[in-house]
Amino acid sequence: MLSNLLVRIDLSRKDFSKGQRKIADYIEEHYDSAAFMTAAKLGEEVGVSESTVVRFATQIGYDGFPYLQKAMQEMIRDKLNSVQRIEVTTGRIGDSDVVESVLNQDIDKIRRTIDEVSREDFKKTVDAIINARHIYVFGAKSSSYIANFFAYYLDLIFGNVHILNSTSKTTTYEKLFRISEEDVMIGISFPRYSAMAVDAMSFAHERGAEVVAITDSMVAPVVKDADEVLLARSDIASVVDTLVAPLSLINALLVAIVIERKEDIKKTFIDLEEVWREQNVYAGNRIDSTRS
Fold first, then answer.
1. Which member of 74, 78, 159, 237 has the greatest number of CB atoms within 10 A?
2. What Rg value do the Cα atoms of the chain yield, rounded?
3. Tens digits of residue pLDDT in 225-262
């Protein structure tokens, strides 16, 4: 995506107006900040009108400024460090109500995920999980928390789950070396992408396992070895990693699995509920037992 945008600019540069050349120069030098500006703000920064910015986007082949903005954001998807994220987030919110602003942004990410996730790959992922001999779930850094959540419920249902959440090569490959074509590998990776996640997905693919990537973009590095790709939108410029949409997508996978294997899973949870009751696992059970 980086080379694609810059190539478009280079190919069109001879036809640019003076104002468009200013925009091109600014994007090439400051795409990390330009990616989060509105057309009006970018025009103000460069010294041209908003309409000139919009015409520039179409001049280099995009269907409007939002598509140019998305291309710039893809360029920096794995490049923003923590300090830059703080600057972008505070600039976005400004004097707005923080609760309303952040929650509305999360709502938007879930809506975009609904539109973009492949229903075909979703169904294939459900089938692969149900039919797998072993299920491997990888998630490092902030992604490890939703990976653990996913693995917890999968293990309650199937009992054949291996969670991988280390960035150590030794630990990861010790857990992965038995993976085979009878297994499924689910890699959860969001910016800033884990290099170990990419390596683990590649290893699982080489061993013939079904490989599923849960990530935010088709240009994410974990996609190249994936048989199925499930896109869930995150916020690459938030102070913290925004994983509301990925968690919602994982909830949907769990629900779909339960629906598909309803009777078997009901039996499993009937047995679990009995064990939980006998062992007073939950506080409600302790209260009931003291009353009887």
1. 237
2. 23
3. 999 999 998 865 566 678 999 999 999 999 999 999 99
Which residue, among 61, 76, 63, 69, has the nearest Cα to 38 in the 3D structure?
69
Q: Is 174 left (phi over 0), alpha (psi -120 to 50) or beta?
A: alpha
Residue with structure tokens 């998630």? Answer: 139
Kindly report the average pLDDT of the chain as a whole number: 88
Task: Tell me the C-alpha distance between 135 and 209, whole Å.
Answer: 10
The full set of domains in the chain, from first to last, is 2-76 (1.10.10.10), 112-260 (3.40.50.10490), 262-292 (no CATH)
DSSP 223: G
Q: Please name the residue that has the structure tokens 């009992």.
A: 159
Residue 21 preceded by cis peptide, ω within 30: no
- For 214, the token pair is 């849960």
Reduced to 3 states, what is the DSSP secondary structure of residue 91?
Answer: helix
pTM of this structure: 0.74
Residue 89: per-residue pLDDT: 72
230 membership: H or E segment, kind and range:
strand 228-231
Structure tokens at 150: 């996913």
Structure tokens of 20?
């468009």
Tell me: pLDDT of 292 over 60.
no
Rounded to an integer, what is the distance from CA 186 to the centroid of its chain?
A: 13
Phi-psi sector, 224: left (phi>0), alpha (psi -120 to 50), beta: alpha
